[in-house]
Prior knowledge:
This protein has two domains: about 1-300 and about 375-435, no CATH class; about 310-370, 2-Layer Sandwich (Dna Ligase, domain 1), CATH 3.30.1490.270. The protein contains 13 helices and 21 strands. The protein has helices at about 1-15, 45-70, 75-80, 85-90, 135-150, 150-155, 165-175, 195-205, 260-265, 285-290, 290-300, 315-325, 350-360; strands at about 20-25, 30-35, 35-45, 110-115, 125-130, 180-185, 210, 215-220, 220-225, 230-240, 270-275, 305, 310, 330-335, 340-345, 365-370, 375-380, 390-400, 405, 410-415, 430-435. The two termini are about 25 Å apart.
Amino acid sequence: METLLEGRNAVNSWLERYGVKFGIYKNGVFKEQLFPYDSIPRVITKDDWDILEKGLIQRATALNRFIYDVYHDKKIINDGIIPPEFVYSSKGYLHECEGITPSEGIYAHIAGIDLVQAKNGDWFILEDNLRIPSGASYPMIARNVMRKVYPAIFRDKKILDNRDYGDLLRNMMDYVNVGGGLNVIFTPGRYNSAFFEHSYLAEKAGATLAYAGEIVVEDDYAYYLGLHGKKERIGCIYRRTSDDYMDPNTFVPDSLIGIPNLMQAVRKGNVAVVNALGNGVADDKGIYYFVPKMIRYYLDEEPILHNAPTYLPYYKEDYDYILSSLEKLVIKDVSEAGGYGVVFGRDLDEKSLLELKDLIKEDPRRFIAQEVIDFRDLEIFDDESGGTVMRKADLRAFVISGRTTSVWPSGLTRFSRNPNSFVVNSSQGGGFKDTWVMCE
Length: 440
């Protein structure tokens, strides 16, 4: 335990020294803060991992098929599995993407799927992050530093190696790359919350880090403007910018961090965009409700991993249950992210409960409700007591879809530093751990 404590201090010192921070906008102010590391790892047994791996691949496969279907044949809508108004009212649905088939037919190349483990050992999926999921760089960096500080830990224990994430990215980008051009990681710049990760992943994947103004579209092809005005064709753009800001000529017209006319190059099939534009339709917390049905519909299989018990106020039975049981449910605003818009009914007074009920009545599509899962606490070092304490933690697993679909044998374990909180997001002041997936 003393070795792990020393390792924690070494990693956090390294993270601070090299500016590995997580930035957030709050109340109109940008603030950079350290993402604190705790060196007591989350350990996932081989048996657990085998189940997770199969379930995550199954889920990512179904989600990719759903996104294709939404923008093409719309069979799942026409067959009455998902109400059409529910899809088309999603903020993630982009009518500009109708009929566009991305390179190799893949939409969600990188899925960051958030899970928790209940105290009985069962795993539940909380969210599917399919637009620009972040966080893989932090366990990569932490493991790398710990290897240097205490190499014996990873030599003596049978832990799956997590150093292949860059290779997974490179291989996926090479697979979807159009015309053999450059692989580029496109960043909105240093004021983005995950800017460090953009540069780090570019290095690990052997890609070029590009900013707004360094990519131009000419004659429906994308080019990178390098040193001295050298122009090189781009075959794949791993974008770390939200859909709305990617092309000011198609989406938000005053975006200064986008690539004018990018959609023209995408429509013509002249460049791959990772993750594909428009796949936020499957990232919607309301659409999450239907993922088990997608798995049955597209794959003719039963879901291996289950959603948290979820209610949709769109349906009258669920609507009535939510309003009568609000004080024991978790309410989530489907348009929010990063832990914002999550309300535990048990924490509200009578006046606040009534106000929330009115909001749900006014706009049922805006919310989902879930049962509170008393998920597992993990042990962390506590600076105040000098010992260890137990805190809530989740797991973000990364699923890469290219020539094949695979799950990175690691993940981002986030924990709450607040003893009374179930919200673990980094933007809410949480910390992170390494995730050890055991070989046997």
